[in-house]
Amino acid sequence: MDECRPILNTGLRGFKVATSRISDVNGDIGKIIYRGYLIQDLAQKSSFEEVVYLLLYEKMPNKEELNAFEARLAAERQLAPEFIDALKTRPKDALPMDILQSGVAMLAHHDPDVRELSNEASSRMGLKLIAKFPTVMAAWDRIRNNKEPVDPLPELGHAANFLYMLTGEVPDEEVARFLDVCLVLHAEHTFNASTFAAREVASTRAHMYAAVAAAVGSLSGELHGGANVRVMEMLLKIGSIDKVEDYVKAQLDAGKVIFGLGHAVYKVDDPRAHILAPMSKKMGERVGQPQWFDISTELEKKGKAIFKERKGIDIFTNVDFYSASLYYTMGIPLDFFTPIFAIARISGWAAHVIEEQYAGAAEKPVLYRPESEYVGDYCGPETCEFVPLEDR
Amino acid sequence: MDECRPILNTGLRGFKVATSRISDVNGDIGKIIYRGYLIQDLAQKSSFEEVVYLLLYEKMPNKEELNAFEARLAAERQLAPEFIDALKTRPKDALPMDILQSGVAMLAHHDPDVRELSNEASSRMGLKLIAKFPTVMAAWDRIRNNKEPVDPLPELGHAANFLYMLTGEVPDEEVARFLDVCLVLHAEHTFNASTFAAREVASTRAHMYAAVAAAVGSLSGELHGGANVRVMEMLLKIGSIDKVEDYVKAQLDAGKVIFGLGHAVYKVDDPRAHILAPMSKKMGERVGQPQWFDISTELEKKGKAIFKERKGIDIFTNVDFYSASLYYTMGIPLDFFTPIFAIARISGWAAHVIEEQYAGAAEKPVLYRPESEYVGDYCGPETCEFVPLEDR
User: Helices B173-185 and B337-358 sit at what angle, rounded to 10 degrees?
Assistant: First the structure.
């Protein structure tokens, strides 16, 4: 039970606020499951589209179901011309996550489903958002670089099509598969901050777009989705493998963290890091930049050892640690690392919004409405006497 | 203390999740205070601009401070031409709250402050949002009706200027003051769902716009900001005073609620309802439509009596009950009731975001990250065995 512990100013850490059928994370043993399935199986043996199907419809699709679903997703990738027109009005130096948040909210304007409160409408809106996220972000990267957006190619898979729209070139199969695995690994992770924000908004019966825009806002924070950017900035700053040890010591001397080491939930290595690491290695070799992976492994080794030595504690790699160098060597701009996280996580957000609003259809949804402890002491324990403006 | 009670699936009702110096609501006795001051004093003796100052800077301004602050707010009302261009690309039947959510996120694109994590930058962004909310909504109402947006008039107060931008005519002073009081009454209300959403997003260190866009999404839900619209739809449906009693009985027979009666927090009449009622009466008389106020009072009387008689419980009017007829007789379109709520509440949201990120500067902000109880039973208590696609 969660009770009998102080809750005030804890950020609700460790408190189970709701039941969910979507995923489970056991940080003690590094086990993540999506609707019953181990994340290792999903990452190594299925595609992002299969995982999206699983998250939305609660079963793994058979071949026929998957084909139909892939076709539906591909058909929803396109953006309205007015939407592209709106993107073209945006200042070119806007932060990509801010473009995504406004983009999600703008997509609502084009969709009559926002007027329907039903499981079906919510599910359709979720599917459209999953389909359109890569198009919005790729279009924005083109527009900010004074290029015309590239239309989606329906015959490409979700990950491959994103890379195609971003670069204008059909990607190598191995590279597309690396991104596909990343999307699977980032698709879902219980009540993380952005998912909780989405559920919180959905609990008022706001529609899917309104809830997902909140999640995008939450993910844009540096304590949440911004972490893999910080990891890459750190790797670039370190620059070479022989500087790792000094860097770790200097950070710890200054009381600072090593980005990508440590996580609120895990007491062992994040299982996602073990799947990402070999991809990062291969990708670095492919593009002739093996140093980022090498610095990462050295940083992991030295970081863990020095933490243990100085603080007597074990510290573990999290999901951001190896995704940073992987995205970088794939040629993804640094400020698109968090949008890629969003392109994956939208699938989990959509499942959570639907669950928040329609799971246990008989039950009335409970609106999240906590209380606060008032500690204002402006006039001592009394209310302040009102003084008219003239006499202040 | 909040502990020793089940928290699972309660929507955190009754749980104090954080300390706050911003406001206090005592639903048992109907007492609301903003930073030490009673809401009745603020509504009857000060302006919205004074209350915004109080919420942001933690004191009532003197005459000089207020003048300077009003000038700063007025100077920030204008929207960038590219922003108006973007609004013009939006489908005319978009929901106004969806326009506002996208608008908030788009404002971020124009503001270099989004790159600065500081109390000062956050405070500046809050002020800009407070200043621009009325401009965004008035511009949208003009655009959707194929009219050019009206530029703000710096010499008008916040409420009067909104009505001016909406209609193109400088409003009567009494009408402007009625709206001003409404804005004061709706400015702040502890950890309501939208404020909690804003704080949740801000806790990841996302910027002001990202957090406020989440709050707008939350407010758009019919269980939150949509309630006063439901009240007016109900009054229009009832149509005349003699139909009130039958309506109440029919609703209760069908197990349905009377909109505007009952609230999660209050066990007496919402004190805001008592301030709104006389304004609704006067406004109805001004425009020769006294019936909406009359139906409302009859509904309050009959609703309370029949509830008591049938269920043995007392039920109380909430803030939405008299604001509905007041906004309607002021000529506000029904789908702008919730945006007006937002135009007021942005002041509270801004204060909460700043408090979430910078209050107790020494303390590290705690990111809201609750847990969930996994109840997926897809393969019984075990994880599901992965079956390759070909064999499904």
Answer: 40
The rounded Cα A219 to chain-centroid distance in angstroms is 6
State which CATH number among 3.40.190.80, 1.10.10.10, 1.10.580.10, 1.10.287.1770 fits the domain covering A23-223+336-359.
1.10.580.10
Q: Record the tokens describing residue B185, joined without a space.
A: 């009454």
On the 0-12 / 13-18 / 19+ scale of CB atoms within 10 A, B309 is exposed
pLDDT in tens, B23-75: 999 989 999 999 999 999 999 999 999 999 999 999 999 999 999 999 999 99
Neighbours of A236 (CB within 10 A): 13
Residue of A nearest to B108 (CA): A98
Task: Please give the CATH number for the structural domain made up of A227-329.
Answer: 1.10.230.10
- Rounded to whole angstroms, the maximal C-alpha distance in chain B is 77
For residue A262, pLDDT over 80 is answered with no
Are residues A149 and A161 in contact, defined by beta-carbon separation less than 8 angstroms? no
Tell whether the model's pLDDT for residue A162 goes beyond 60. Answer: yes
CA A131 to chain centre: 16
| Cβ contacts of A91 on chain B, cutoff 8 Å | 82, 109-110
The span from the CA of A149 to the CA of A142, in Å, is 5
A261 secondary structure, DSSP code: B
Cβ of A222 and B210 within 8 Å?
no
Q: What span, in angstroms and rounded, lies between the C-alpha atoms of B20 and A340?
A: 35
Q: B141 an active-site residue? A: no
A58-73 pLDDT per residue, tens: 999 999 999 999 999 9
